[in-house]
Design goal:
The structure is a single chain. By secondary structure, the protein is mainly beta. The protein is 0% helix and 56% strand. It has no helices and eleven strands. Strands 2, 4, 5, 6, 9, 10 and 11 form a seven-stranded mixed sheet that branches. A four-stranded antiparallel sheet has the order 1-3-8-7, with no helix packed on it. Strand 7 and strand 8 form a beta hairpin. It is globular and about 40 Å long. It starts with a strand and ends with a strand. The relative contact order is 0.33.
């Protein structure tokens, strides 16, 4: 069982930045694939970004020029640096890891961007 804890959300003005963190409960030694998703009020959950053991990275088109995903394997933590935030970025942000053939989700951290 892998447990994930997101942190770093909050309320900011448009144009400001936040850094989200996703910490795993224990070290992950084998191959993994970690993703960030978000779900806004009244919308479907959508993919934001992903990174794997080999630092292969993907971004959704809506965030690719503003967000940066990274990981710190020593701390067993992934990050999402979010710059130039817009009101449309307002959502609950979730991290997900695929590890040893199973998917695990965090509980989410709220990001609210006001104009």
């Amino acid at each position: 069982q892998v447990q994930l804890l997101e942190s770093g959300g909050g309320s900011v003005q448009a144009g400001e930045s936040l850094r989200l963190s996703c910490a795993a409960s224990g070290n992950v030694y084998a191959y993994y694939h970690m993703s960030w998703y978000r779900q806004a009020e009244g919308r479907e959950r959508e993919f934001v970004s992903s990174i794997d053991t080999y630092s292969i990275i993907r971004y959704a088109d809506s965030v690719k020029d503003r967000f940066t995903i990274s990981h710190d394997k020593a701390k067993n933590t992934a990050y999402l640096q979010m710059n130039s935030l817009k009101p449309d970025d307002t959502a609950m942000y979730y991290c997900k890891i695929i590890y040893q053939g199973a998917s695990y989700w965090g509980q989410g951290t709220q990001v609210t961007v006001s104009s």
